[in-house]
Amino acid sequence: GGASSIASGAPQASSDQANEQKNVLTAGGLRPVRYQARFEAPGVPVWKRGFFVPTVLAPLGLLLGVALIGGVRGRLALRSEAGRGRQQAKAARKRLADAEKLQSSGDVGAFYGEVEKALHGFLEARLGMPVVGLTREVLAEKLTAGGADAERRAKVLFVLEACDFGRYGGGGDPAERQKVMDAAAAAMEGWA
């Protein structure tokens, strides 16, 4: 081998650098697989610890609790339909008391409007349906179906007509306002 045995000085230095290993681990750079060893027994698995079961079941318990509370509220709402009617009737009576305060004031329209709203609220509570916007004939039919006697129907219709007349036709007479107030109170009282 003549060609391979003849070597020049400069090309040999460059080939030595190319053959040299780039990533050499020295004794100071070697570490064992576990850098720090622990010589103790393995710990208890997470699922065998005391907090695991309550932590897993807590969201399910919260969901069931919320569902239970929602169900109880729903049942109470169904059961309180009669209570809601009583509350509406009580609010209507309070409105009538507010109208009585307006009776002596000079605002006749506000007085008659409040009396009409009080009577409508009371009728809605007793009949269990909205009555605003019904014609007088349809309202009389609904009152008859609701169990109101003829005298009570006549008082209700009188009060509604008087409120319309008082608001839009003047109605400034205090005696007439007192008569409407008494008729509205009589229509609301003693309802079965």
Automatic annotation (TrEMBL):
The chain crosses the membrane at residues 51-72. Keywords: Membrane, Transmembrane, Transmembrane helix. It comes from the Bacteria. Residues 1-20 are annotated as: Disordered. This is Protein BatD.
